[in-house]
Amino acid sequence: MKKHTLLDGFRNSLPISFDDMELLQKVFIHRSFLNEREAAALKFTESNERLEFLGDAVLSNAISHMLYQKFPEIDEGELTKLRAKLVNRHTLARIAKKLCLNEYLLLGKGERNSGGADNPTILAGAFEALIAAVYFEHGFKGVFSYIDTLFSPLIETAHLDHSHFDYKPRLQELAQKVFKEAPVYRLVKEDGPAHRKRFEVEVMITGEIFGTGSASKKKDAEQFAAGEALKKLKLKYKEHFPETPRWPGKNSL
Asked: Which of 12, 73, 101, 191 gets the most CB atoms within 10 Å of its CB?
């Protein structure tokens, strides 16, 4: 194996430039490889673990920033849960495989023979090391842009998880408590081709519109409308809200 040359394909696949090949090489060096004679011949003396440490912090920072900006009305507890769904070894391992990091990993023979190239922990570590390397090459602005490209679709999916998506039953309960009347959802607009429909829904209580929502599915639009209604109800009728509800970001699909 010639030092670095095998990484040319990976470097060319990146949407960003990468000049420091020594740094990029280090991304793929698992600690088990350092015990191999080949590592000594190539003068590899450090694994990707220090990069992994830094990449974990950079990634957490960037994801926290993205969630904070994208969902301004979700409270700290929900933001923490969303971040945990995104920054965990299984999610990171899937991204690593999508980027083909497993094809470039340098592992000890024992680790490779035991399936190390598919090990979620090893893959997640390599991905975090890559994030650190991009940070060194392009600074926080550059790495943030790269992370945003990779994670924006995942953030949408995570937010639609129904464990975070119980606004309609909350509104039903509170509307009955405050107004003795159930909320009514009305489809305001439906547009777009069949495969890319957009639905706009409003929710009314006693004839007053309390929230609107827009989404690619009618039931999701209703959920966003209910979330906005919950926010307005809390501001207007604080005495009926001993607990702080979890708000969605309006129209954030």
From this structure: 101
